[in-house]
Amino acid sequence: EMSAEERAFQEKIDAGIKIEAKDWMPEGYRRTLIRQISQHAHSEIVGQLPEGNWVTRAPSLKRKAILLAKIQDEAGHGLYLYSAAETLGVTRDQVYADLLSGKVKYSSIFNYPTTNWADIGTIGWLVDGAAIMNQIPLCRCSYGPYSRAMVRVCKEESFHQRQGYDLVMAMAKGTPEQKAMAQDALNRWWWPALMMFGPSDGESVHSAQSMQWKIKILSNDELRQKFVDQTVPQAEYLGLTIPDPELKWNEDTGHYDFGAIDWEEFRQVVAGNGPCNRDRLRTRVKAWDDGKWFRDALLAHAEKKSERQVA
Ligand code: FAQ
């Protein structure tokens, strides 16, 4: 049963009018956005860690500069997203505390290790590729601050995706050893990348309501299919094999059919039991603790400055 306020709210959404921070909104809409935007922000921040692992070992100055720029972009995305969450009445410290205590989620993909240099290119190609697929529709989502943040984030992700493809291409067209490294990376990242889109539509608890509110524009399975359709020709161009014997072009549907996802693995990773979950959280908690002296100093400095202004 919708109240008059809720009906007016839904009509606004149906008419394509953006909801802004100070507009009336149902509590459920606010909570869903805080959940999704803060999980998204945490993903950007934790997502720096797998790549950070290779900064000191990048094979050339050019590759190191590119990698550093990309990781800094991810930090920036996290900051825009925390700011977007703050427009909904939470503080950054609150949502960040929920990450550090393990209470809230971040994307499953960042709980996998980066074991060879080709992983860095593969993350750009597949992980940023999947992120863009999911985020381009979010530029049209109903909440103004989130939709506007997504516009800039998507431009940067597009650069990330291209640098990743360029790196994998250099390796796939390189020596047989380099090509084998690229294939090994694809074998390990393919299925986790498909899991980024979330549970299948039948299992997705939030989808129906989020789609009605235009927080989500396309469903998890629709986005996953678009990603497969886009990525298969890219792998073929590289001469690499996607690790799925059931992958096959379907003339009737005009899409690729693909094999079953291991949802038990997904559940385990989301529940905190992936290969790197504990390590990732430990690293973030340590960074927060190690930064305490600096936050204290900033606050003390700001207080002194405002006292001086009053005097
Ligand atoms: N991992 O009912 P649904 C990036 C959870 S890109 C972990 O379908 P919803 C860029 C879900 O939260 C990655 N948990 O949920 C980058 C929910 O749990 P809850 C970040 C997952 O929200 C690249 C439950 O399962 N992108 O960081 C995952 O309608 C390279 C039920 O699922 C975004 O966050 C998963 N993969 O749809 C950075 C995009 N999937 O909250 C560095 C914005 C689902 O009830 C390097 N988010 N869950 O406890 C979204 O579009 C949506 O939140 C979905 C999930 C599509 C992720």
UniProtKB/TrEMBL annotation:
SUPFAM superfamilies: Ferritin-like. Its EC number is 1.14.13.149. It comes from the Bacteria. GO terms for molecular function: phenylacetyl-CoA 1,2-epoxidase activity. Pfam families: PaaA_PaaC. The keyword Oxidoreductase applies. Keywords: Oxidoreductase. The keyword Membrane does not apply. This is 1,2-phenylacetyl-CoA epoxidase subunit A. The lineage of its organism: Bacteria, Pseudomonadati, Pseudomonadota, Betaproteobacteria, Rhodocyclales. The gene is paaA.
